[in-house]
Amino acid sequence: MKVIQHTAEELRTALVSNSKDLAKIYSKYTKEERCLLEEGFHSGQPGSLFQPITVHSDSDWISAHPEEPQDFESFYRDSYRRTPDASHNTIYIQTIGSFGEVGALTDQYVEWLRDYCQAFFYGLSVKLLPAVTVSETGCSFRVNSNSNNLQILTGDLLRFLGNKKPKDAFCIVGITMIDLYPEDSWNFVFGQASLSMGMGVFSFARYDDNFYTRGYAGRLKKRIQPRRGDYSVFEGYYTPPITSTLLLRSCKTMTHEIGHMFGIGHCQWLNCVMQGSNHLEESDRRPLDFCPICLRKIHVSVGFKIAERYKALLHWMEEDRSQTSGPETASHPATCFPKPTEAFHTSQQWLRRCLDRLETGNR
Question: Record's PANTHER family (predicted)?
Fold first, then answer.
């Protein structure tokens, strides 16, 4: 295992900048906020809120995809980055295909994702668009010749999302429980985005703990070659059960991808939700939230009180689960479903420590 340990001076420059105008903006943070942000300078020390990045193999993202690190100044000066404004301040989520058996639990899962996104990008509006079936997208699809599971083509889905994007959208993201592929020569892809157009689509299919096992229920029982446009193969197709781990992985992926819509690159400074990942084990090592450098990037883009954002995230994880219920419809009366937040325990503790720092201003 390799530890990427930057010096305190390197991290200070990445966060604050040597530019006088950006340093002046930084000085507007309160003493307590600066204390929290500068905690990153002590990464890896006992009790630190932030940890250095660890590289466990050559297949990890940083080893396989060398990139120029993006500090705050390079982010801020990027003329191509997109920022929400009064006319484009809503994040839209479009579900594609089944998310499980039709019912209140499926509806509630998607609502949990929306609420988490609302807290994570605190200050922006997050709305769900009416769910669509795979056939409504008109996308191409195939059966993966290796894993024998259904896959849908990302380029077609992005074109569909472009046509559906509301006028007040900052961005629109499509989410699905069906595996994806970007072109015939690729085995699969977790997701794909057009950052300039504010669109992205990503799949949670491979976040099923059993996806890479022989017994994965999404493998088709027989080798078939579905006809183009015959979407009947998706009727009753397997979707992963809604578990605490699936919810955590879904929240992490969704916020990572939306973070890119703001122009935030893959983080190479500290352990951060914006780190790239090549595989599930690496993705699971990422924390749920931003490092100080990426937090400053999203803060300057959206504008919020850091403590209020942390409180909103903590509330999402700790809200009275006995009051959590699915939407009431004629066919599905309101039903209580405990939000499965067991996998979020480490993040809950971390958020409490962050709020304690913001209240006391002490390490």
Answer: ARCHAEMETZINCIN-2, ARCHAEMETZINCIN-2-RELATED
**Please, are residues 150 and 143 in contact by the beta-carbon 8 Å criterion?**
yes
Amino acid identity for residue 210 in this structure: N
Q: For residue 128, what are the β-bridge partners?
A: 93
DSSP H helical ranges for the chain: 8-15, 20-26, 31-37, 61-64, 72-76, 104-120, 134-137, 154-164, 244-261, 280-285, 292-302, 306-318, 345-360
b/e 163-172 (16+ beta carbons within 10 angstroms → b): ebbeeebbbb
Q: State the Cα–Cα distance between residues 107 and 269, nearest whole angstrom.
A: 37
Half-sphere exposure (Cβ direction) of 161: Cα atoms closer than 13 Å? 30
287 in the Ramachandran plot: left (φ > 0), alpha (ψ -120 to 50) or beta? beta
328-338: per-residue pLDDT in tens?
A: 544 444 556 78
Are 287 and 347 within 8 A, CB to CB? yes
Asked if 273 contacts 289 with a C-beta cutoff of 8 angstroms, the reply is yes
Alpha carbon distance 108, 53 (integer Å): 34
Q: Which of 277, 200, 279, 210 is nearest to 238 (CA)?
A: 210
Q: What is the mean pLDDT of residues 290-297?
A: 98
Question: Catalytic annotation on 235?
Answer: no
Active-site choice (183, 257, 281, 359): 257
Strand partners, 200: 173, 193
Neighbouring CB atoms inside 10 A of 258's CB total 25
Residue 204: closest CA among 223, 187, 218: 218
pLDDT in tens, 263-276: 999 999 999 999 99
In the numeric block, which tokens belong to residue 79? 């003329």
CA distance linking residue 14 with residue 72, whole number of Å: 6
